[in-house]
Q: What sequence folds into this?
């Protein structure tokens, strides 16, 4: 899959490679109303990583239903809409509005964005609020529900378990790690929002450890995310317990990265004589 916020609405990439070969596309985090996002600058490169403080700039759910879903309806690749809100009711309303819309195959509940003042990662930081949002979305939709978790907590396994009990079909992890960069000439934080979320290879070991931990705490499928750039990275996540992976920041340097990762997984399986990817899921845990 592509990771939310790194692949637009899929439409931006469709002429660059055959996106229909992917497992799924997860679109940019979507809110009830359009959002302008945070003040610039909103991106800063760091060693082996990228800091962002976009602030969920997006076109809003109505425009998404009107302009994007009809395009997705003709695609073979399923599209999952990442939803974000400031209140539990925002999430429920989003799920309700997206119910039955042709072209939408699932929801990814974003309770992990570190760049907004209200909602987002606030909900994902403890088991009770994460479960409340999950249950509200579950009650409002018949679509598969993924819940995307934040690494910015000391209790990710308990949060994952709570989200599973509240009705999530799968869990994706991790979203970005909260971080900062400082411009030493201006003596100011580089990002307009001061802090942002770190992604890319710098966070891969953190993400892997969290997938490994969560795989021991839940029975529902895990979608691993965090710094995956090659097929070998993806295999590590699968061996840690993920049933699928998302490719994010790698797409900025190489728009074809999600397909390269998929082909890399296939190549590894051919070389190792593996017929079924299920043989590898959680292999490092036994
Ligand atoms: C953002 O738009 O600020 C990033 C989205 C996210 O971290 O979920």
A:
């Amino acid at each position: 899959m592509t990771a939310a916020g790194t692949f637009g609405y899929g439409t931006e990439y469709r002429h660059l490679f055959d996106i229909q070969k992917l497992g799924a596309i997860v679109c940019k985090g979507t809110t009830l109303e359009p959002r302008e996002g945070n003040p610039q600058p909103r991106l800063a490169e760091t060693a082996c990583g990228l800091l962002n403080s976009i602030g969920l700039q997006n076109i809003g759910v109505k425009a998404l239903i009107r302009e994007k879903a009809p395009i997705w309806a003709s695609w073979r690749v399923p599209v999952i809409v990442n939803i974000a809100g400031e209140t539990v009711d925002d999430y429920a309303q989003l799920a309700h509005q997206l119910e039955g819309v042709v072209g939408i195959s699932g929801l990814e509940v974003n309770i992990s964005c570190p760049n907004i003042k209200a909602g987002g990662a606030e909900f994902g930081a403890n088991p009770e609020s994460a479960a409340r949002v999950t249950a509200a979305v579950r009650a409002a939709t018949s679509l598969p529900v993924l819940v995307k978790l934040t690494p910015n907590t000391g209790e990710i396994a308990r949060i994952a378990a709570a989200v599973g009990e509240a009705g999530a079909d799968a869990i994706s992890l991790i979203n970005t790690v909260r971080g900062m960069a400082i411009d030493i000439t201006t003596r100011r934080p580089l990002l307009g929002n001061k802090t942002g979320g770190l992604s890319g290879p710098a966070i891969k070991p953190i993400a892997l450890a969290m997938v490994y931990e969560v795989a021991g705490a839940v029975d529902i499928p895990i979608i691993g995310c965090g710094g995956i750039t090659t097929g070998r990275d993806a295999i590590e996540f699968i061996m840690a317990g993920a049933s699928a992976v998302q490719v994010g920041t790698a797409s900025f340097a190489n728009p074809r990265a999600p397909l390269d990762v998929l082909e890399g997984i296939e190549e590894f399986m051919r070389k190792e004589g593996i017929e079924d990817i299920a043989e590898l899921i959680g292999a490092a845990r036994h």
